[in-house]
Write a structure and sequence with these properties.
Blueprint lengths: L5 H14 L3 E5 L3 H14 L3 E5 L1 H7 L7 H16 L6 E5 L4 H20 L8 E4 L6 H16 L4 E6 L5 E2 L2 E2 L13 H11 L5 E5 L18 H14 L7 E3 L7 H8 L3 E6 L1 H17 L1 H4 L9 H4 L1 H22 L12
Parallel strand pairs: 1-2, 1-10, 2-3, 3-4, 4-5, 5-8, 9-10
Antiparallel strand pairs: 6-7
């Protein structure tokens, strides 16, 4: 199936909210990682989200160019073609984009979608993230209002964040001196976000509840999912049950499965997965290199073994390793077996 249309993406979000499950949002950087994500979704009969960071776009554009926007468009166009092979529904998102990068990254991507729409084609992206979480909430909402209006004109959902996710990933970072109160989104913050953006367009909200970027041993990350519960309750108490927000879980590595599942009851419909899939991609490559040391290197003037230094020999293993971790994420988030393919 081709990439979801804007209407189909909204149906995906509603189905997840109604069914108390969430979609894995898999960061991809190449054709190989795109194929791994799609295989993981398809093997699980799960719909899902593929997303690209600014760093992924720069990487994909090549060593001589480093054009973040161009590389991201290339990845998105490839995803549109590759997704046609699978019987699941997939949407495309861009990950963390700070305000200082938004004009040179998000605006050209929104324009690329507008150009496709003018030709009667599907959106290039269904979702974009603006990460203004390092700013005071009032400033965050001002710039978020600008971008949600641009997105709404093209039926794009905007993902916003308030509160700082700890750790570091692709330039999104909470420093050691980040005040503790900024690591946790308050009920008042969630009400403000809803009141500011609800009438302007469709949005999802990445609330912070102790989550951190990076990799940690299970149990090391101290989540407080009750923050999401209290925030949703505050919004719905004021504006009714229909005001329940579509929430996004960033920095899930190292979280206990019980905590991940608990967030699904509080409105989480998307969880970003990057660190774990990076490792499961790289681990088979490391094993291949160490197991075939004499073959991948021409040691002491020997000729090596073409079969093991052919990049396809180890990148296929990497793709399989990452696909398995994507399937695990589908199971963790209870999206497996719930594809809307053929229903929307």
């Amino acid at each position: 199936m081709p990439i979801a249309t804007p209407a189909q993406f909204k149906q995906m979000l509603k189905a997840a909210q109604d069914g108390s499950y969430a979609y894995p949002a898999i960061n991809c950087t190449s054709i190989i990682t795109l194929n791994a994500a799609l295989k993981g979704f398809a093997d699980s009969k799960s719909d899902g989200i593929i997303q690209f960071s600014t760093g992924a776009g720069q990487f994909a554009s090549g060593l001589n160019n480093k054009d973040t926007t161009y590389g991201t468009i290339i990845l998105a166009e490839a995803a549109h073609r590759l997704a046609e092979q699978y019987d699941v529904v997939v949407a495309l998102n861009t990950d963390h984009c700070q305000p200082e990068k938004a004009a040179s990254f998000l605006k050209p991507l929104i324009e690329a979608t507008a150009a496709r729409r003018a030709k009667g084609e599907n959106n290039l992206f269904q979702n974009h993230m603006l990460d203004a979480s390092a700013l005071p909430l009032a400033e965050n909402m001002e710039i978020s209002k600008e971008y949600i209006k641009l997105c709404a004109e093209n039926e794009i959902v905007l993902e916003v964040e308030a509160g700082v996710v700890g750790g570091e990933e692709e330039g999104a970072a909470g420093s050691e001196d980040t005040p503790e109160e900024m690591l946790y989104t308050t009920p008042e913050d969630m009400v403000t976000v809803y009141e500011t953006l609800n009438e302007l367009g469709s949005f999802t909200f990445a609330a912070t509840f102790g989550n951190v970027h990076g990799h940690y041993k299970p149990g090391a990350v101290k989540l407080r999912p009750e923050i999401l519960k209290k925030g949703q309750a505050a919004v719905m108490e004021k504006y009714g049950a229909d005001a329940e927000m579509d929430l996004v879980f960033h920095g899930g590595s190292g979280s206990l499965l019980s905590e991940i599942r608990e967030t699904l009851d509080y409105g989480v419909i998307k969880m970003n997965v990057d660190t774990d899939t990076q490792y499961t991609f790289t681990r088979p490559i490391a094993d291949h290199m160490l197991s075939n040391y004499d073959g991948v290197l021409k040691i002491d003037g020997e000729i090596g073994n073409k079969k093991v230094y052919d990049p396809r020999s180890y990148l296929k293993k990497a793709e399989e390793g990452m696909a398995a971790r994507v399937a695990e994420a589908c199971s963790d988030l209870l999206s497996n077996g719930k594809t809307l393919f053929g229903q929307i």
